[in-house]
Inverse folding.
């Protein structure tokens, strides 16, 4: 029963890693760039939701408040691409890496300036509720996390497979110049994908906040999410989710059954093993490019 309990809790935590990793993959699929501020966007989205929902602030109903927070962070993502990232269009990818790392520090400073650096708790309707199955106790927050993550991942996969915007994003990722020539509004598509990434990060932040207190430093969770995206394979939405779940399950098992320190190292050990054995990730999608 203890093992089952650890696995269920690990799957729920892994879903949060996977959602943040989805943000990495969304931007990579559209631009072939990596947003290293993804974890900090998750953190800022969690604080925006807290400001809208908690009784000490705006006290909005939970679901409308979360949806409004996702919309606000979608606007932030759109603005970041429109007014910041677009200014380095055509520069080496290294420039985007440095820029997004700097943005992460800015997001942390903004969150700390508004909400402070003391851990805060998001008020949720399912806090403290549990479901007992046999000898296994599952928190409602874990159930919500798993269900929402599955639905969101399925929706994003369908978005890239069957919508014009999703197909345009993949086209601009493979060859921006060719996509522009055939009529794809590359800049607008990229901005929309950044907006979608901001909204997804907000959902991940809310789910993370439902499991405990939050502070501006939780953005560092993005490092584990990046490892999850690498393990699953950049460009693969299901791979990002499964990579996150793998890390989420291994961490509590390592903490329980292995010597101290292995739990913190396990995500990066798995990433190194995957990079050595399958450099493109476990579920990589490789496309041929015509030049």
């Amino acid at each position: 029963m203890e093992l089952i309990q650890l696995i269920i809790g690990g799957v729920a935590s892994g879903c949060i890693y996977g959602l943040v990793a989805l943000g990495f993959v969304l931007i990579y699929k559209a631009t072939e760039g990596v947003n290293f501020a993804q974890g900090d966007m998750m953190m800022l989205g969690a604080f925006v939701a807290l400001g809208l929902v908690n009784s000490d602030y705006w006290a909005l109903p939970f679901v409308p408040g979360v949806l409004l927070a996702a919309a606000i962070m979608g606007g932030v993502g759109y603005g970041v691409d429109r007014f910041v990232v677009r200014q380095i269009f055509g520069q080496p990818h290294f420039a985007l890496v440095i820029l997004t790392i700097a943005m992460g520090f800015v997001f942390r400073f903004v969150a700390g300036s508004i909400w402070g650096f003391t851990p805060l708790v998001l008020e949720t309707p399912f806090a403290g509720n549990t479901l007992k199955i046999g000898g296994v106790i599952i928190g409602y927050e874990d159930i919500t996390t798993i269900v929402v993550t599955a639905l969101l991942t399925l929706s994003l996969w369908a978005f890239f497979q069957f919508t014009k915007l999703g197909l345009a994003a993949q086209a601009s990722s493979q060859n921006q110049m060719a996509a522009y020539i055939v009529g794809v509004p590359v800049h607008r598509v990229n901005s929309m994908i950044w907006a979608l990434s901001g909204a997804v990060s907000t959902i991940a932040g809310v789910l993370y906040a439902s499991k405990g207190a939050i502070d501006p430093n939780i953005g560092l969770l993005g490092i584990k999410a990046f490892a999850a995206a690498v393990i699953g394979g950049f460009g693969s939405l299901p791979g990002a989710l499964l990579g996150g779940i793998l890390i989420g399950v291994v961490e509590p098992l390592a903490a329980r059954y292995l010597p101290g320190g292995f739990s913190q190292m396990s995500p990066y050990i798995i990433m190194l093993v995957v990079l050595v054995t399958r450099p493109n990730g476990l579920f990589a999608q490789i496309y041929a490019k015509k030049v």
About this structure: The first strand starts at residue 130 and ends at 133. The longest helix spans residues 2-31. Confidence is low (pLDDT under 50) at residues 287-291. The beta strands are 130-133, 136-139.
